[in-house]
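Internal tracking record. Fields below are filled automatically when a chain is submitted to the structure queue. Please do not edit lines marked as system-generated. If the sequence contains nonstandard residues, flag them in the REMARKS field before resubmitting.
Queue: standard
Priority: normal
Entity type: single polypeptide chain
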Amino acid sequence: MAGKSSCEYCSNYVFDEEEECYECVIVMDEDDYGRLMQGHYRGCPYFSMNDEYKIVRHQM
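SYSTEM-GENERATED OUTPUT FOLLOWS
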């Protein structure tokens, strides 16, 4: 999670139709994953806000 945001709002959290569930598509190495799980990061370093309207606002 990034700050007060959750994975639900991350653009890297997508629905896998084959598994029928949501999952993170970021491929982390073992060291990065360990640091994330041990709380060394304040939030997920890969968090990217899932903002569907970002492109539309940019075009305006």
